[in-house]
Design goal:
Length: about 110
């Protein structure tokens, strides 16, 4: 029983680190799922996606992209609109990562 509680506590702590990281992404900047996983010490970008899927939209989820700069298919229109309103530029259907990717350290 103690092991399960420990796993739950670690998962909750990881989820909180993921949400805090997403919350800290500045307006006009983006990170990939993989960037966030690396930054918070998660074992997989999929964990980041799962945490965001379970969140109630309390963080700027629209600033998180796939590794190639594409948007979530099921949220494409809303995500693109939000990013454009923040000044994020696109090259076709991909965010211009060279100009908008945030490293998690500098504002």
């Amino acid at each position: 029983m103690c092991e399960r509680a420990d796993v739950t506590e670690r998962a909750d702590a990881l989820a909180q680190r993921i949400l805090a990281c997403v919350e800290s992404i500045p307006v006009g900047k983006v990170m990939t799922y993989g960037d966030i996983a690396e930054y918070v010490g998660a074992s997989s970008p999929r964990i980041v996606g799962r945490v965001l899927a379970l969140d109630d939209g309390s963080v700027p989820w629209h600033r998180v992209l796939r590794a190639n700069g594409t948007l979530a298919e099921h949220l494409y229109t809303e995500q693109r609109q939000r990013l454009l309103s923040e000044g994020v530029r696109f090259r076709g259907d991909k965010v211009d990562l060279a100009n908008h990717r945030w490293d998690g350290r500098t504002a």
